[in-house]
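Human: If only I could read C-alpha cells as easily as an amino acid sequence. Underneath my words sits a plain record pairing an amino acid chain with its C-alpha cells. Take your time, and here it is.
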Amino acid sequence: MKKLLKIFMLFLLIALPLSSKKVALAEEDMIPITGDYNDYDDYIDLDFDDLNFSDKINNSLTDENNAFATLLATIFGGFFLLFFITATLVSYIYYSLALQKIADKLGEKNSWYAWIPIFNIILFFRMGDQNPWLILIALIPGIGGIVLAVLSIIAMCNICEKRGYDKLLGLLSLIPIANFVLMGILAWGKDKVTTPESK
C-alpha cells in the first residue's frame, strides 16, 4: 500500500507541472461571454471594442517570463523529486535494517528476506504468526488491501508480544511516523524475548 502511494505521488510530481501549463493556456484562450445585459441591474455595461485581449495576453506573458517560470518549475520539480527519491531510499533502508534485526532477534531463518520487496512481507507475516500466503489477498480489488492492512496490524501486535512489549503497542503501526519509531524500538530495544515456554 505504501509503495502504491509512493508511485501515485511520483506520478503527481511529474504530471503537476504539465497540468499547470495547460491550465494557464486554457485561461488565455477563454472568450468572454457577450450578450445584452441591459435588462439586468447587476451587470456592468462593457464595451468589448475597447478591450483588446490579444494585446493584453502578449504584454503580460512574454517569452522571458515563460522561460523564467519554466526554469523555476524545473528547479523546484527537480529538488522535490530528489527529496522524494532520497526520502524513499532512506526509509526503505531503515525499514529493511530494522526488519532484519527483528528477524535475527526472533530467531527467524533467512532474515535477509528483509531486503527483497515481496519477501520482506513474507518474513514479516512469518514473524507475526500469519500465513505468508495471505499476501495474495491483496489481489482482490477493493477489499483486499483493507484486509491485508488489518492482517499486518495483527502481525505487528504479535511481533510486539514476542519481543516482550505490550501487544497493543502494535497499533502504533497505524500512525506513519510512529511506525518507524516502533520498528526501531523492536529492532534495537531491549533484548527480552517472550516465548510460550517462559510464560
User: Anything to note?
Assistant: Residues 28 and 56 are 10 Å apart (CA to CA). Residues 21-27 have pLDDT under 50 and may be disordered.
